[in-house]
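Example is below:
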Amino acid sequence: MDQKKAGVLLSYGQTVLSTLISLVYTPVMLRLLGQSEYGTYTLVNGFISNLSLMSFGLGSAYVRYYARYEASEGEDGVAKINGMFMVIFLCIGAASLMVGSVLVANVHNIFSAKLTPAEVETARILMALLVVNIAVSFPCSVFTSYITAKEQFLFQRLISMIRTVLSPIVMLPLLLMGLGSVSLVLATLVLSVVTDASSIWYCVRKQKMRMTFGRFDWGLLREMGGFSFFIFLNMIIDQINWTVDTTILGIVSGTAATAVYGVARGEGDASLTSLFTRVGRIQFMLLMLVLTGFIFVGEPFIEAWGGGEYEGAYPIALLLMAPVTVPLIQNLGIEIQRAKNKHQFRSKVYFFMALFNVAISIPLAMRLGGLGCALGTAISMIVCNGFVMNWYYHRHIGLDMLVFWKSILSIVPSFIPPVLLGMLAVRLHDFAGYAGVLTFALPYCAVYALSVYLLAMNEDERNMVRSIGRKLMRR
């Protein structure tokens, strides 16, 4: 089996493994930490993660320039690129350490309005550890990028899977000893150092990675900056959209509200439209199974998973899950934009969406707490992804969005049987705890799958399902 196939299989394996571990480990962590400390942990982690923006999107440029220099100058050219990126990311790491130190020194001024003195002190320690973790990660990212460029996916995925398994094994005993959120971050730092050291060893000893430090190529840096700018802009936007809410909540409402919120959260145009629609239909069928099922038993699932004190996360989760369905079923559009070199518009739209999100989330958070933040994010996503980006796809990318949405909406009638079953089931029975959620989920998934297969899928989609079934039976 080649590296790519092995990497794909391990990637799916890691997704399943991390999901299972999260379902088992996270509820235990929430109960051992308590709402206040988990809120502090979520708040500080989201706040410090903004330092990751200091990479300026340059990490995404490595593979592009690796391929160029390998083709033109061979291993000597790769060594030059490695040295240049290492210098850049060492400087970024040092800068992030200095910026982070200033934040740590001023943590009282940042969060003291709504955090207790004990929570502020915990936040200070967490922030210091997280700053060190991010600072170290910058130069180490050169080695992980090198592994990606060399297509050594097997090693890369194995390291990720091992870390996924080790995280709860290391953290759970520390939590049981009563060491709290500080132990979580400290364990994360140690695991990061171990996995980064493994990547460095693999690059140097197994892949014979070399670095050449010579005259700095400022012209190349300017070129990389131009390539990375819109990637960097997207990073800023994503960071604002998905971490600003916890920061706003921490300042406006304190750690309890933050904790609740943290639990939720090249071809012809006709051919491209056809591909875009085929992929979108499959994604829509899968996502709507999750969304409709969550509508019925999401509340008892959250109570079983996080505890009764997190029941307020249910409406927040719904507000975040529903609008994100649209961009998720249109993910292929991002690649089509890049292929046509028209991805700049999306970055600009998302930039203004992020500003709009902040502008409306602050007053909504003051009035409604976590629900207000989720509402602000939902409104901004609906406007941007539901209307603006669909207009752009139709008018400027060449995708026929009328055909797309007509095909997507033709699936909706197939949801009637499972939804009616769900409405009847929750009216007749109280599905409490994990056992109750499973009691609902298994027959619901079966009815949903059968209904979609018979009423919504076209012949190509049915053939794909039958093909997967035959392969599974042979195995």
Notes: The first helix runs from residue 3 to 33.
